[in-house]
């Protein structure tokens, strides 16, 4: 039995509230159980120097956690003068994941920055950030299309992410914090709406795993990301 009482292949309840902030071109609040992330997308008529003049667009991301997103207060990274290694790794992951679903030629020479701020954490914050980040990106691109700033849709496929792992010897979908903190194997799966893999992060936290177990976790991830993509599309309809 999972601590939450969920079935092995059962996701946490997912809600996505769009238009959560007033000023951003795209925004949503995504809730995956008790993990809540605010995602905003900002359009800028500039690109990084390394692609300037190429006609290509760019999608990047920033990630952070509020001091009381967890059960004890974390010091703000700004107070220490630099981002932690975990933060840098996660925001690079979010940017890579979202760019995989973008036709950068169709986007044109502009940048969209997706900010993911964790309001409350209960496991799977990077996955919720990617899933919600795509919704914010979708809404921002819709504004470009409506204004006629671009003529074809640069978002070629939705992008969503979910965690899977081996908990108490059983393969489980969408780990919350009690499971994530004790999982023998922990993985994050990032996929497109058409079922293609973008990135897989898997590690043996307490025990090694077999090829068959990895395949089982992948099957769970396909199920989970399918449900997430359906929630994304419903939110953006």
UniProtKB/TrEMBL annotation:
The keyword Ligase does not apply. InterPro entries: ExoRNase_PH_dom1, ExoRNase_PH_dom2, ExoRNase_PH_dom2_sf, PNPase/RNase_PH_dom_sf, Ribosomal_Su5_D2-typ_SF, RNase_PH, RNase_PH_bac-type, RNase_PH_CS. Transmembrane segments: none annotated. SUPFAM superfamilies: Ribonuclease PH domain 2-like, Ribosomal protein S5 domain 2-like. Its EC number is 2.7.7.56. It is an enzyme of class 2 (transferase). Homohexameric ring arranged as a trimer of dimers. This is Ribonuclease PH.
């Amino acid at each position: 039995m999972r601590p939450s009482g969920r079935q092995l292949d059962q996701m946490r309840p997912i809600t996505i509230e769009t238009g959560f902030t007033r000023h951003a071109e795209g925004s949503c609040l995504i809730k995956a159980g008790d993990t809540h992330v605010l995602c905003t997308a900002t359009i800028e008529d500039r690109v990084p120097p390394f692609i300037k003049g190429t006609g290509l667009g760019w999608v990047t991301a920033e990630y952070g956690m509020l001091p009381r997103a967890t059960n004890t207060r974390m010091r703000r990274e700004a107070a220490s003068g630099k981002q932690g290694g975990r933060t840098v790794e996660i925001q690079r992951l979010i940017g890579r994941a979202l760019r995989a679903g973008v036709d950068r030629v169709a986007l044109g020479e502009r940048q969209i920055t997706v900010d993911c701020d964790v309001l409350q954490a209960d496991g799977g914050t990077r996955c919720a950030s990617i899933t919600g980040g795509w919704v914010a990106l979708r809404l921002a691109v819709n504004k470009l299309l409506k204004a006629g700033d671009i003529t074809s849709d640069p978002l070629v496929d939705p992008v969503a992410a979910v965690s899977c792992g081996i908990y108490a010897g059983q393969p489980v979908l969408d780990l919350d914090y009690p499971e994530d903190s004790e999982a023998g194997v922990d993985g994050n799966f990032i996929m497109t709406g058409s079922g293609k893999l973008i990135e897989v992060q898997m590690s043996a936290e307490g025990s090694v795993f077999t090829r068959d177990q990895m395949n089982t976790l992948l099957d769970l991830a396909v199920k989970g990301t399918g449900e997430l993509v359906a929630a994304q599309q419903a939110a953006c309809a």
